[in-house]
Every structure is written in structure tokens, then in C-alpha cells.
Amino acid sequence: MGKNEKGRGFLDPSSETAALYAEASKFIPGGTSRIHYYFSPYPIYAQSGEGCHLTDVEGTRRLDFLNNMTALIHGHGNPAIKKALFEQIERGLAFSEPSEPEVRLARLMIERVKSLQKIRFSNSGTEAVMMAIKLARAYTGRSRIAKFEGFYHGYYDYVQVSFSSNPANWGPAEAPASTPSSGGLADSVLGDVLVMPFNDQKAVEGLLERHGRSIAALVLDPLSNKGGFPLPVEGFFKFLREITRSYGILTIYDEVISFRVDSGGAQGKYGGDPDLTTFGKIMGGGLPVGAVGGKAEVMDLLDPSQGSPRVISGGTASANPLTMAAGLAAMEQMTPPVYARINWLGDLLRKKANEVFAAAGEPAQLTGEGSLFRLLMTGEPITDYRTSIRKAAPQERFNQLHRNLLDEGVIISKEGLACLSTPMGEAEVDQFVKALERAVAKLQKG
Ligand SMILES: Cc1ncc(COP(=O)(O)O)c(C=O)c1O
User: Fold this and answer.
1) Using one digit for the tens of pLDDT, what is the confidence trace for 362-406?
2) Is the pTM of this model over 0.90?
């Protein structure tokens, strides 16, 4: 596996991939436009996708457990999404004017997610988070935000703080340091972001007692991939809701990834009544998308019908009809039995994969919920970002396992993120588990 019918793998110096990457490196920094997909010495290049399979430019077919970073919940080439797109292409690619699919997708989202009264579309999760933070600032008249250590929310400046902290710079557990997770942030950004430890009620109480009245919003991913998918301890979200209200802080749930786990999103599963929620990924049916939705009194700061709105958002491609049509076709297929089935498959996969690690004596685990999972090279119970990395094996060991999985015909992200898609069934779960068994055995042989 991991080789085409000529027996050539993507790392072969004579491969198409090597040639493409060499060419890409002449024009694109590091040969890639997406840091999250780059891995050393270079990534595989996609040729085509069909259902739950992706074929690379070498002609090697693998099971795709990454699905464009979890965005393609129906895998590749879903017939209903293709049909909706072809029909929309016939009507027109893009207009300055709004179009019907936007209205229909807005209605569907509001009918499904309890905390939404209004919604506004954009082109990425990053834009959605940026818009939500601006709305919270305009609504509260405050400028600082709070977020949890190790949680990723896209690449708007104010959330590029402390998502990649490490033991050398992360400071005390009860008051994590604000560390820059990217160069190029304005000096003022770090001071404008309060970083808190997830699942630590006492620490959150202490930090908000000191800073709460200067904070506009708490941005929170209810199921954080970057944090290792720690689950909230009993009552934690309820506590957060109450304490943020008591300080006049808005809560923003970032459901760009977690919306996948339930038709009402992670908030439908774990509760919580956020003021605003951000979306992306699956909601666009595979096309670029983002959205912020929430309480009408906050969302109405965007309303231009009564004069100039308090918060300005634009976007030449925002709510473009292709994305809206694809998103609608994707979301309409996500009925409760479809969620139930794919989530059940996720539970099965986690159980079987964790049995593989236990049988091999490898301190590693699959975390996650529903159709989302993450491979972590630590046996520690995951309660927050620090537990996900403190005792983890060196990165090189994970890199090797990732490579072994690719060789065994399975795609996951270079950080261990993975997901199921609706064309998958028990057969694909079994293929994953067998591939993992071989990949771990190879890793342990050295
Ligand atoms: C939780 C979360 N928020 C925001 C984003 C940013 O979304 P996008 O990549 O569409 O800008 C991501 C992307 O992975 C994410 O996982």
C-alpha cells in the first residue's frame, strides 16, 4: 500500500509529487498555501476524490479520514451537492445581489441551532470569528477577549494567542501566559487577550474576578481539536454561562469544527446558550464558508436597514450562491438518523483503535466525539491542552506513525485530527483499525 501500480510511492525522487513540490517551492513559500496540510518533506498532492477515497497524483488511492480538514462530511463527489452546484452554475456563479439559497440556508441553520435568531455568512471560519469578536466589542463597549489555552480559532490576530504554548513559555496552570502563536501580531494584542485553563472552574473564577469587567467576550470551542478534544467536566459550561453573564461578558461558541457532532451543534449535545456562535467547514458543503449567528439584539448591530450599522462587514464572496447551494444540499442530507449513524461509527472506531493501542502497549489514544477524532501520543486522560501534550511522545514518533498510516492507505492530519464521512461504514472502520495495527507494529519495530 502507499504505492501506485508501478510500485512508486510519493516520496520516490522520480515521482510526480516530488516534481510538483519542487515547482511549487519556486513560487509559494515552502511550496504550500496551507500550514495545516504541509508535512515534511512534502505532502501528497490530490488528484481526485470519490466517496471516502482520495487518489493522489501517483494514482495511489487511500481512505480519506481527513476530508478537507473535516469540512467534507459527505466525502467526495456527493451526488446531491454536485447536482445543486451544477444547477446553480447554470443560473449564475456569483451576483452582487442576494439569492434564494442564502435565505434557505439561513432558515435551516436557525431552525436547527437553538441559540440562533439571526445569522450572517462569510467565507471562512476565521472571518466568522473576527466578526463575532467585533460584534461583542461593539455590543459591550469593551475591547479585551478571553479564550482557553491551546484552543485554535483561525488566524485573526486576537485568537492567535496561546494556541501553541509549550512548557517553556506557558506559565502557571491557574493563570496561563498570553503567548504569541504567530509572528506579526501587534504589541497590544497579547495584553488584550486573557488566557484561561479549560475545565478549571476555580482558576476561571479567580481570573475573571481580576479581569472580568474589561472583557467583551469569552471565545470557546466546545470541542477543541487543538486542545486534544477534552470533554467539559460536569457543569463546566453552565458555570461559564453564569459567570460570564454576571460580568456582562458575551459567550461566543466557536463551532467551526464541532457543529459536526449534532444537528444542533456541540451546544445541542452539551448544552450552553451562547450569545453568538461561529460556523464554517461542513456548512459550506465543501466550498469556502463561514458564518456568525446568535441573539437578535447582538446580530442586529449588523443591520443596515435603519441607517449605517454599528458593525460593518462585507466580503465580495460572502453568501455567494455556489457556497450557499452546496451548503444547503449538504445540510439537508444531515438528518437525525444520519448524525446518529456516523456518530455511532465514530464511537466504534475510537473503541477499536484504543484496543489496538492497549494491546500493543503503546501510550497513545484516540479522543473525540461523534464523527470527530484525534490521535494523541499520550496515555494520559485529556482534560485540557496541557494534559494533551505534557507527557506526549516526541513529535518525531507521531510523524512516523502518520507516515506509516499513509503507507497503509489512510489519511489523517499531520497533527492527528481525523473524521468520518457519510459514505463510510463498518468496513471502512475495520480498514482503519487494521491499518492502525500494522502502522503501530511498524513503529514499534523501529
Ligand atoms: C475551531 C476552529 N475555529 C476556526 C477555524 C478557522 O476556520 P477557517 O480555516 O475556515 O478559517 C478553524 C479551522 O480549522 C477551527 O478549527
Assistant:
1) 999 999 999 999 999 999 999 999 999 999 999 999 999 999 999
2) yes
Is residue 298 a contact partner of residue 273, using CB atoms and an 8 Å limit?
A: no
Please choose from 33, 122, 152, 267 the residue to mutate so as to test ligand 1's pocket, defined by most ligand atoms within 8 A of CB. Answer: 152
Q: Is the CB of 62 under 6 A from ligand 1?
A: no
256 lines ligand 1 (CB under 6 A): yes
How confident is the model at residue 446, as a pLDDT? 84
Q: Which one from 147, 269, 281, 295 is the annotated catalytic residue?
A: 281
pLDDT < 70 regions, the chain: 1-7
For residue range 399-427, what is the model confidence (pLDDT) as tens digits?
Answer: 999 999 999 999 999 999 999 999 999 99
pLDDT for the residue numbered 82: 98
pLDDT at 4: 67
C-beta 147 within 6 A of ligand 1: no
* The pLDDT value given to residue 7: 65
Sign, CA dihedral 116-120-125-129, equals: negative
Measuring CA to CA, which residue among 52, 50, 32, 39 is closest to residue 11? 39
- For the CA of 224, the closest atom of ligand 1 is 1
